[in-house]
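User: My instructor asked us to take a sequence, write out its structure as tokens, and then describe one feature of it. I'm not sure where to start. Here is the sequence I was given:
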Amino acid sequence: MFKRKNTISSAVPLIASVQDIHWSRTHILSLASQIILLIIALFIATNMIINMGERRLQEDWAGQRYSELQTVASLASDKMSFLQFRTQTFANGELLRQYLSSPSDEQKQKLFQSWDSLTKHIPELLGLALYDPQGKLKFATSSNFEGLALPAKLLKGKSTLGGGEIFSSDMAFIPIDGKLEPYIFQLAWLENPDQSINGYLVTYNSVTRLLDTIKPAFFNPNSPLLLLDHQSFLYAGANQSNPLTNMPDTLGASLKQTHPELWQSMAMNNFGQYHSKNSTFVYLKVELTGQNETKREYFFLSYIRHQDIATRFEQWTIVLVVASIFIGLLGVGLIVFRYRYLMERKARHNSIRLSNGLFNTELSYAITNDSGRILGINESAANSLHYQLNTLTDRSLQRVLNLNDDKFDEITNILYEKQGWSGCIGLDDDNHQINIHIHRESLSPSEHYWIVVFNDISELVASRQLAFLNQLLSDGAIATALTDAQGKMISFNHCFDGLMQLHGDNQLDIVSLLGNEISNVWGNILTQVTLQGEWQGQISPFEESRFNKNLKITINGHLSLEGDIEYLIFTVETHVPTPMHSSTMMASKSNMVMRMVDLENHFNNTSENIKFSSSLMVMDINPEGIFNNMGDISQLEKRQQDIESQLLIDLPPSYQLAHLQLGKLVLFLPKTDATHTHLFAIKTLQNLANHQLDEGINIGIAGYLEKQSLEQYLANADVALKRAKQSGDQNICQAYTRTATFDFGNTSML
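Assistant: Let's start with the prediction itself. The structure tokens for your sequence are:
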């Protein structure tokens, strides 16, 4: 009746002859609909990923290009400042001074030779010219500038500039060797000892050459860099290799006429991005030649085509399309095989039900012939044996269980005699324990089957062993207790029970059990455990305490994934020496550099009385002129770490130190007044001076005003800090501090 066949698959033997699979019209339609939905979903997902990838490349490019524009703008501004310095240097030159004092052909020849050498060795220097006090040209290094006249407003009496100042002009164009060249000129006043005008020295500098000295080192050479004035005229960036159709490509062309939408966006903002249909633009407004009389603003502009970004993403597009096709084929195969598997499993279940419901009594089961060879096994049983399901069919139960011949013969004899056997077998060197029940059933007088039920008890055995080890571990010589985040007792070991004389009572609060010393600093303890994972301290016996010796308390925290405290582990040790301080409790890790959010939480949780007798000290540790460039940020961070380390050494336990920002620290000082805080600030600076860390440090001090938030508190201290920076003879200043020690009724500005 239950003769084995292979009608489903040659790799899956049958248990009963009635087992078979049949493809109905419903199955075919359902399979086709799922395949179509899979293809549509893959098409949509692939298209979305490609579009998102290209958009991400556009954003990355825009961010990188804006950073490059900032660098070029900063260097261009520095370069313009250097040109002014260079013009002043030329004006103070010895040869020019000698010529002005005693004009002669010989002196003029020497001066010409010196200027020619300068124009040859300085790329952006187009030429120099000397004008008399009336603004008439005496001579110039190049004939290109002989027709240029000085603006009338720069002549003596018509301008507020003069003396050692340098005038920088607007950008303009001049033809040089048949080409239009954008330039700026800088004018220096040449004065006699009596401050009368002896003439004017003018230097002419090329804008394009100036940018060419900067762009290759700090800008993508393949990316366009355009310089426009505030009226949208192009001064640099012409002759682009492949310009956009609506972008100006000749010097003097107007962006306002070719691309008015882009210019409107630039005119309304100092920096930003502009996305058109086919390209992305990045622009930055910068003042290159600003003077006291005139504000001159220019725009740096760069762009990239979306087609270029799509070309860069083309390889990834091909990879995504190929991956999508592969996933689609794999998905179609999985759907087909899943349907076939479901149909085979249904047929197998039909065969199993024919076996008088023998498989319906257990979750993990198998059926074998009378010799112990597996005819069918379910997935749960395969997982219990740590085998793949398709590798167990038609294998010997003896080999699967790693039984020797004597043991297997013993089991077989018991089955023949009693029709059943139960036992526990260890697999994988006894680390994997399986409880097995075997029943021998008869389907016909000449045909018998074994019904094998598996129960994986490895976890149960391991859990019992672990529980036993934990019990041995918890009953050690160190008193230990486990509480929740509020300090409510959950469990404790025998040593803790004996030390605190609890007699098994776990309905206590650990905070009240250890006394007011823990209660008063409970909030600080939770904060430190959250930030550092541990808190340590010492307590002494009190009037109603259950202990009579000094105790050392160590509190460790178990945090959730969100960073909140779930459990607290208290470790209590005796024979702790009595502290030398007047307080009976001392936290060894109470001093630390806090975040501003943690300082704000501490400030908000502090009582109004303590706030009222407090001071706030803001310390600026960034010396002027030392850490000015972006490259010096790491040096400033190192200096801040050194100063923090020195502050923490002598910082009183009740004072709180926190980061305000890079280069600024804030200290919250409870129970202080203006005098005490000022003395503490002086002592702090003296300590830093001993370690050569006091250079450029300024301190602002403020007192607490009633119902004041931490933000207002910091604002008052910042007022004092600004005064300290402005003061030339001291670097400590106070604002909004109290007029007398602990006289909190009145406040004043000091």
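For the description part of your assignment, you could build on this observation: The first strand starts at residue 125 and ends at 131. Try explaining in your own words what that tells you about the chain.
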